[in-house]
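WARN no homologs supplied; continuing
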Amino acid sequence: MARLTKNMKEVLSKFDVEKQYNLDDAAKIVKDITFTKFDASIDIAVRLGVDPRKANQMVRGTVALPNGVGKDVKVLVLCTPDKEAEAKEAGADHVGLDEFIDKIKEGWTDIDVIITMPSVMGKVGALGRVLGPRGLMPNPKSGTVTMDIGKAVTEIKAGKIDFKVDKFGIIHTTVGRASFEADKLAENAHELMSTILKLKPTASKGTYVKSICLSSTMSPGVKVEPKSIEV
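OK structure emitted
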């Protein structure tokens, strides 16, 4: 049997791994049990009572986290020349079209979000094999295929994220960093959960939110009482 490290013993002394906490308390605990020397990501995993294989039970959306995600999001805008100035003024890190499409075809994916416009989706669609597995393919539902390029860039830079239930019925995303105050983490998580609740498919029967877990990059998960957010 593996021996517990000193840090892990201290972590496990601070909370009950089997207990469910309200979201505010869980955020405080996760901060308290994070010992990484770097600014760890704080993530949330939400298991839903949906069958993502059925189109009418797919849960996907966007949410503007009130306190951002705590990191500089690298944005690439693939657009026609008439939209380049708008994208640059909004703060896009990379702006262009054909030259970046060629770079991506060669394997370059050093960006977090790609924003494009409907008229060039024909070219961008050809990058599906590279972008799809990395979750970088622009999509109108996430607001990354739009004519309002400037607004899209500004929102993403300010903390707008998109999320999607995976094949196991779980939504997994980041709600901040370990350096955030606990109330800021909780506020972000509450905003995300509020959005997820509003997106409940009418075809979903039974319990919608089955479990919630909050954790940092290298911490154990802290269970959250689902009923504490279903208000």
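The mean pLDDT is 91.
OK
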